[in-house]
Every structure is written in C-alpha cells, then in structure tokens.
Amino acid sequence: QVQLRESGPGLVQPSETLSLTCTVSGYSISSIYYWGWIRQPPGKGLEWIGSIHRSGNTFYTPSLKSRVTISVDMSKNQFSLKLNSVTAADTAVYYCARVVCSGGSCPKSDYWGQGILVTVSS
Amino acid sequence: QSVLTQPPSVSAAPGQKVTISCSGSSSNIGNNYVSWYQQLPGTAPKLLIYENNERPSGIPDRFSASKSGTSATLGITGLQTGDEADYYCGTWDSSLSAGVFGGGTKLTVL
Q1: Ordered mean pLDDT values, 10 residues apiece, chain B (110 residues)
Q2: Does B5 touch chain A (CB under 8 A)?
C-alpha cells in the first residue's frame, strides 16, 4: 500500500523559505512515476505546484516557477519542496502526491498524503 | 481564478442524481485526460475518476464521468449523506506544462 507523509515546519516567517519533505512508504520513489506537490489555501481550492521524476525532470506551475524547487532523495525514498520569499498568500495545506504521467501529460494524482498546514506569519 | 470552471455548489435530495460540470479549453481538457477528486471535510482529496471515465478499485459505480470536447461531467446517482464533499476536476494543461484544477464544487445532500 502506497503511503505518503508530509513533514516540516508549520510556521514560516515572511520572506523566508518554506521547506517540506514527503516520505514515501510501500513503494519505491525510483519507479516510473512522478512525485508532486499540491496546495490548498484555507477555505479555497486546489493549486498544483509541481512534480519531479527520478531522472530529475521537473514540471512547475508558471505562477510559482521562479520561487519553487522540487528535489528527490532516492536513498531516503523522499522528495522535497522549497518555496522561497514566502508571503501570507502562501499559507495553505500542502499535499504531496504520486503523479501519473504519460506522453508528457500528467493528469492524475492517485495517492495523496494527509497534508500539512503551513502558516506564513511573523 | 482557476483554469477550469466548476459551479461553486450543487445540491440534491438523498437517492437522487446530481451532475457537476467542468469547463476548460483545447490546451487542457480538450487534449488531455480528466480526473475527478472527492474531498470529504477535513481530509485529503481522493481520486474518484481517472482517464475521463475510469474508476479506481473500490469506487462504487454510483460515480461516473464523461468528457466531450473541452468539457467534462461527473455524475453521482443514489445520493447518500456521506457523499457530501467538495469535488474537483483536474487535468494537464499542455500550454502551461502543468497540472490544473477546477475551483471545486460543494455537494450538499439535502
């Protein structure tokens, strides 16, 4: 059974860097799948952030691309999110997920973590 | 402002049927598979439909979906109070090279 769990600070100072890790169990992160991050501001809808493959290939949503880095650590079966220069608008529940891609299209996220609330505030 | 457009809310009585629409463009729905997700209150989204109309193992056949052109529709029959949730459509946008979601639809079972 594939399981994902997010971890990291629940409070980040404005202008600092948000750093989260997703630990995957029950499945090898070095498989054919991509691994991604999605966020949800309080009371609002889902926003796709980006995804990464074991090869290092990444996709990022354009509105966040200049501030986002997603990386993978196959030795720990983990992948990570870094979002720099955060503001209150980055306050959200952050989910990690397994992303299914084919032919340059990644329309499906089939396993999700429980989510972690990150608040940006001084 | 979401790339995909969904109605903010729908409602129906227990046992009835409801449909939720999702509208996009040729760069997303028109040329990529559509997925649907169910988010029960306080929980993570759960994959409900993939590849336009396929159900993952364990999803009852009360849930169905279709796609036509640049729009997709989720249908739920035999509504139960436990179906009260937010429903999101999602797909890939080939112009953005990124995933996109609808704004979500809150289903109320009256």
Answers
A1: 95 97 97 97 97 96 97 98 97 96 96
A2: no
